[in-house]
Design goal:
The protein is α/β, with parallel strands linked by helices. Strands 3, 4, 5, 6, 7, 14 and 15 form a 7-stranded mixed β-sheet that branches. The two termini are about 15 Å apart.
Length: about 325
């Protein structure tokens, strides 16, 4: 038997139920690898699913959790063997296939990434999809020629999981990071991660002009909506903007002016279905470039039973940094 958070809703009009259940392996979905999970995470998408705030879940019943790390128990996959330390981000976990907020998972071996040898399962989940997305965003900026010498990089939603790790990664590589947040009381936290300047999200969150004063050589945006539009409008010529979130909204009320008059590049970051090659590069860089003491400073560990309350706090904007879920606590 194993414990899992299970979301149930028999039909669109049925009552939504989210509880911890005790299940056996017969309940596990199809897959060629069974993993004994050590840690998972609570991401924004997970919180939406657990709190039934958005149609994240597309198959019922569902075990939420878009990340997991653990040890392979059984495998018929040619690349994966019993005893391997593995992790997974995305691939529909917690949406169309049972996810990581459980003590066991059965999944396709094609989705698994080997755990880097210098990362523990807990550290990997402290990084999680948030940190992996932050690294993919940094890689996109680099691919488009954004270097520390080019100028400042803006990080929006900076106290969130993606924003916190993006700030630390950029600062570690010598960029001057300007962190935008609605939590100015967290200024010391962001400065501790390496931000050079903190600005209020209100400076970016309203409707703005198509072109504004040039400032940013690069942007990692976790917010979307007006914030993304304003960030693009404030970019220097040939800047790059990595769009990886929609905390403010998925609308984008902008014009083509920044793109055709300043040569700004807007890069979409799809962390769910990134190639194995990009995943491997991102995770190896995270294992070597991210300061593990900084990572620990932004991480809070909770038990499986704490997920329900933490999901509400996360959606209410009351948390910062990363939440690691010890599924065996």
């Amino acid at each position: 038997m194993f414990k899992a958070i299970v979301l149930r809703k028999e039909n669109p009009d049925a009552t939504f139920i989210a509880t911890i259940e005790h299940l056996d392996d017969a309940h596990l979905p199809d897959g060629d690898v069974t993993v004994r999970i050590a840690y998972s995470t609570l991401n924004y998408k997970d919180a939406l699913a657990v709190a039934n705030r958005s149609p994240v879940v597309r198959a019922w019943p569902m075990v939420p959790g878009i990340d997991l790390a653990g040890i392979v128990e059984t495998s018929s996959h040619p690349r994966i063997k019993a005893g391997d330390a593995v992790l997974i981000n995305g691939f529909g976990l917690g949406e169309t296939h049972w996810g990581g907020l459980a003590q066991r998972a059965r999944i396709s071996g094609d989705w698994l990434t080997p755990l880097p040898i210098n990362l523990s399962a807990r550290q990997a989940m402290a990084i999680g999809t948030a940190g992996y997305t932050a690294m993919l965003s940094l890689m996109a900026l680099e691919q488009h020629g954004v270097t520390p010498e080019r100028g400042e990089v803006l990080v929006t939603g900076a106290t969130g999981g993606v924003g916190s790790i993006a700030t630390a990664l950029l600062a570690g590589r010598g960029y001057r990071v300007v962190a935008a947040t609605g939590k100015l009381e967290q200024t010391a936290y962001l400065l501790g991660l390496g931000a050079s300047e903190i600005i209020s999200r209100s400076a970016l969150s309203g409707a703005g002009k198509p072109l504004q004063k040039e400032r940013w050589a690069g942007v990692i945006d976790t917010v979307g909506s007006h914030t993304l539009a304003n960030a693009c409008a404030q970019c220097l010529p040939d800047a790059a903007v990595a769009a990886c979130g929609l905390a403010q909204g998925m609308d984008f009320q902008a014009t083509v002016a920044p793109f055709i008059l300043r040569g700004v590049t807007l890069c979409g970051i799809n962390s769910v279905y990134a190639s194995h090659n990009r995943r491997g590069i991102a995770w190896q860089r995270l294992a070597t470039e991210l300061d593990m003491q900084e990572l620990e400073s932004m991480t809070r560990e909770i038990a499986l039973a704490d997920v329900f309350k933490a999901a509400e706090e996360l959606l209410a904007g009351q948390l910062r940094g990363r939440l690691v879920v010890n599924v065996n606590a």
